[in-house]
């Protein structure tokens, strides 16, 4: 998808790409939403750093968009504590999913998901703010979920982590505002990525239905628009929040869910 077809805005007055000169770090960048965000931000002129634990995949993705690959294990939080990232845009996107009722949820799984989706974003924000404060510009975009605003059965670790991310994003907005830094959450519904499609067998078993019925009867049951969100649609919203035009938008949570939360 070209910058012109991706949505708002293709270029600023005078032909300069709107994100020229900006550096963006995107976690979970090897595929799915992360790669879609990387493509769009690169098309708009940003130097994009895709971070992911999957070395070959993230290196291939970075070559595709003309960006930079960073092999990074976000579960190894100790190695993040002393790092600094000189980036203007941070997209906290890495995530995982697990389905089980609370009484059988393994504590190790709960801790792992909280580490990946709450502690790691905190450390990445902490590592990025000094540069943003020095330059007077920063865009922090946290990939939350409708489950950062609502709850569903079988997803206690995921829902807890996303609700925590919402709070972290709002505190960052309050602290960062005087320094030209905005912080917002993007809240997709079910997106057409492996993170969602890999749930289908577990959802079928948990709900006592056939796998072919999961999409309409479970994942899209609350949607007004009966289809999955596409990664490029999420990226389009991220692109706007990363722009100069979004300078007065901070501490907000933007659903892109086909009416799931209406």
From TrEMBL:
One Pfam short name: adh_short_C2
Uppermost EC category: oxidoreductase
One GO molecular-function entry: 3-hydroxybutyrate dehydrogenase activity
Superkingdom of the organism of origin: Bacteria
EC number: 1.1.1.30
UniProt GO BP: monocarboxylic acid metabolic process
Leader sequence residues: none
Cross-referenced SUPFAM superfamilies: NAD(P)-binding Rossmann-fold domains
Keywords: Oxidoreductase
NCBIfam families: PRK12429.1 (NF009093)
Family statement: Belongs to the short-chain dehydrogenases/reductases (SDR) family.
Name of the protein described by the UniProt record: 3-hydroxybutyrate dehydrogenase
Organism: Lysinibacter cavernae
């Amino acid at each position: 998808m070209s910058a012109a077809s991706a949505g708002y805005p293709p270029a600023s007055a005078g032909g300069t790409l709107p994100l020229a000169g900006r550096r963006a770090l995107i976690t979970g960048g090897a595929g799915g939403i992360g790669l879609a965000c990387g493509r769009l931000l690169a098309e708009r002129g940003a130097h994009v750093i895709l971070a992911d634990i999957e070395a070959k995949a993230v290196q291939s993705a970075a070559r595709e968009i003309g960006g930079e690959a960073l092999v990074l294990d976000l579960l190894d939080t100790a190695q993040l504590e002393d790092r600094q990232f000189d980036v203007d845009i941070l997209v906290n996107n890495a995530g995982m999913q697990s389905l089980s009722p609370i009484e059988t949820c393994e504590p190790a799984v709960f801790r792992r998901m909280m580490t990946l989706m709450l502690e790691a974003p905190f450390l990445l924000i902490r590592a990025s703010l000094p540069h943003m404060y020095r330059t007077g510009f920063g865009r922090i975009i946290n990939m939350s979920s409708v489950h950062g605003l609502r709850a569903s059965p079988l997803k206690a670790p995921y829902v807890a982590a996303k609700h925590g991310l919402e709070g972290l994003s709002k505190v960052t907005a309050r602290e960062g505002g005087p320094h030209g830094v905005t912080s917002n959450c993007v809240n997709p519904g079910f997106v057409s990525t492996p993170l969602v499609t890999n749930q289908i067998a577990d959802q079928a078993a948990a709900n006592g239905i056939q796998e072919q019925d999961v999409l309409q009867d479970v994942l899209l049951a609350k949607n007004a628009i009966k289809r999955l969100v596409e990664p490029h649609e999420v990226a389009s919203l991220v692109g706007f929040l990363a722009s100069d035009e979004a300078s007065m938008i901070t501490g907000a949570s933007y659903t892109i869910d086909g009416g799931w939360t209406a």
